[in-house]
Amino acid sequence: MASLQARTLNTLLAMVVISLVTAFIFQCAFLYYAGGLKALNPFSLLSSFANPNSIMDLSSISLPAQAQWMLPASTVVLPFVQPPDLFIPPGTTLESLLEKPFHVHHQDFLDIIGLNPTLTKIADSGTNPMFHEAPVWYPPTDEVFFCQNAGAKAAGTGLNRSSVLQKVSVPQAVSVSHLRDATGQVKVDVVPFDPPVINPNGGTNYHGNFIFAGEGQGSQVPPALYLANPVAPYNTTKLVNNYYGRQFNSVNDVAVNPANGDIYFTDVTYGYLQDFRPEPVLPNQAYRLNAVTKALTAVADDQINPNGITFSPDGKYAYITETGASMAFQGYIQSRPAGIYRYTVAPDGTFENRKLFAHVTVRIADGIHCDNKGNVYAGCGDGVNVWNPSGVLLGKIFTGRTAANFQFTGDGRMIIMGATHLYFATLGAKGAELSW
Ligand SMILES: *[C@@H]1O[C@H](CO)[C@@H](O)[C@H](O)[C@H]1NC(C)=O
Ligand SMILES: *[C@@H]1O[C@H](CO)[C@@H](O)[C@H](O)[C@H]1NC(C)=O
Q1: Where's the SMP-30/Gluconolactonase/LRE-like region domain (predicted)?
Q2: Which part of the chain is CATH 2.120.10.30?
Q3: Pocket residues for ligand 2 (CB within 6 Å)?
Q4: Do residues 424 and 413 touch, judged by C-beta distance below 8 A?
């Protein structure tokens, strides 16, 4: 009996040792897989094994030329906490933040930026915000399309004139990506969509075409989703322009769920808040247009200003940026939401379990897209901010100005809309698959 107990005890001990060794090997494998190997020495491995919250020694990592560390521990206590706007941490200046614009808040950002990320200004439109929103990439011609701001005073749009859509060639942008400023070296062409998309603001790919969200104009041109042909003659067809007889407020952004193929879009009163649309007759909501039956359903009414919309690559989560803090011509209300909410997409395509995913660090988050690993990128008040799927800020592509939207334009290539500045970035990440 006693020897049986001893043998059981020995077996148990052996099992414990084996599990510990196995766990250690898996931990090493995980860290290797997570791309941290270049960061690792045996001590950091051991300490990270002992305490999952311990900080790895990152001092031996040499960063790409255009990158700099911005680890959270360096700013968690500040000698002086400045009023909200651009955040210039102690020891930095706006110039130093712009000089190395890839800000690494977490070592996992290193895989996203790759070994030699670059940021180039490829066009400058002076005071007219020509590079605002709706960036969409068309792989067959390798062109990226985008629109002017539909409501900014400096755009001269409003009730007088609809904002315009333009395009650039991505290979041309790639050819100047070794420069920091290539203004004038990349051709920007106006695209004569016909019939025109009235005040486009959001866009996505759709079965070889684009869908643009048009905000409408006055009370006679209701907001609409337009299907648009990305090649000449650039013809367009309206997909939806009313909710059972009522005009939308100003449809803002559109995304297709890769799991069910349906078209989801946000509708928000920015046209009214920018004086080019009448008083709203619907709440601000997110809608779903069934791609087959054309049935239109409201899927979320729980945000003040639902703005950008996207899905995780598997279609299981929807992300919507909430720009409640921005009331356009009525100004900013900093205590209002300015973050990203995540919803679970139920098997029947409805949204549930709204969860706060992130609150942005500068102004608001606007355009939003995932990479192929499910990391979440949003255009914010200081550039493109990137979070992992748990909402941890991994890093920023810092432009020092509002980057309302951006788009992957092929693997490791990205266009960034900086209102009057158009940027092109090269990096390590790949966008989510364009599967529709
Ligand atoms: C239309 O344009 C004119 C002159 O260009 C300007 O004076 C007027 O304020 C504009 N109206 C609106 C509603 O934007
Ligand atoms: C463009 O026109 C062609 C030819 O009439 C038509 O087949 C196609 O569906 C149109 N595309 C759009 C987006 O309207």
Answers
A1: 235-412
A2: 109-426
A3: 209, 227-229, 235-237
A4: yes
